[in-house]
Amino acid sequence: SSIKMEAFYRELRNMIQLRKFNGAYPIAYRAYDNIDIGTVKGLTITYDLRRTGNVTLKASYTLQFADGTGSTSQSQSALINAGVPNLRSINPFDYDQRHRFIINTDYRFAGGSAYNGPMVKDFQVLANTGFNFIANLGSGMPYTPQQFATPVTGEVTPSTEGSINGARKPWQFTLDFNADRNIPLSFGKDGDKKKTYNLNVYFWITNLLNTRNVTSVYRFTGVSD
């Protein structure tokens, strides 16, 4: 087994953002400009358990901070619509996820003399067969809370409570399952040079537990429903 630690730092420059050109002749206008900046930095710790008996396990934890002046090319549109001058302030990106845990567990049976699974007479039931589970747990993405409820018809302008992307959605969890079997195939006559191929048949289920994760919330209530 081994433990690996990695630190990362990434600078984002000249990203595209909507901008209002005030004082332009004959009128002020909007256009896109390469004015957005940001940074993504963090740390990943990985534990790797190499094949021990039938089990292989790999687990990782990532701590990340992703901040910048705009998550998309339209991030400044609300400020421009409100008549606010072009502002460059650092806030969490929409995809800023503080914590991420991933655990990949594989339980696999070899074939032939190394087989140690169930038998039906002389038949190796699970020879060259494996079962894989991937658990993925992550903290919630940020969103911008709203000070008061607004109608969907839009006659009342939303008012931000706190800072941009100053609140967090709930944590998210998924568990995926994969079962596969390797089937060796040989072609050619005895005495000739045989060609050997490997056919892999698998059965894959995403979100095995049918977990319902919150992907978006109403800005005023902070809940999805």
Task: Describe this structure as you would to a colleague.
The mean pLDDT is 91. This protein is mostly beta strands and 225 residues long. It has one helix and twelve strands; from the N terminus they run βββαβββββββββ. It is elongated and about 85 Å long. Strand 6 and strand 7 (123-124) form a beta hairpin.
Descriptors:
225 residues; mainly beta; two-stranded antiparallel ribbon; 52% strand; elongated
Q: How is this fold's topology laid out?
A:
Elements: E1 2-21, E2 29-52, E3 55-68, H1 77-81, E4 91-92, E5 99-109, E6 119-120, E7 123-124, E8 129-138, E9 142-143, E10 167-168, E11 172-187, E12 195-205
Antiparallel strand pairs: 1-2, 2-3, 3-4, 3-5, 5-8, 6-7, 8-11, 9-10, 11-12
Enumerate how many helices there are, as a single number: 1
Order of helices and strands: EEEHEEEEEEEEE
The separation of the N and C termini measures 45 Å
Determine the mean pLDDT.
Answer: 91
| Unreliable sequence segments | none
| Strand runs, count | 12
- The protein's oligomeric status is single chain
Shape: elongated
Helix content: under 10%
- Sheet-strand content, in percent, reads over 45%
Rg value: 27 Å
Major sheet summary line? 8 strands, antiparallel
- Helix and strand content put the structural class at mainly beta
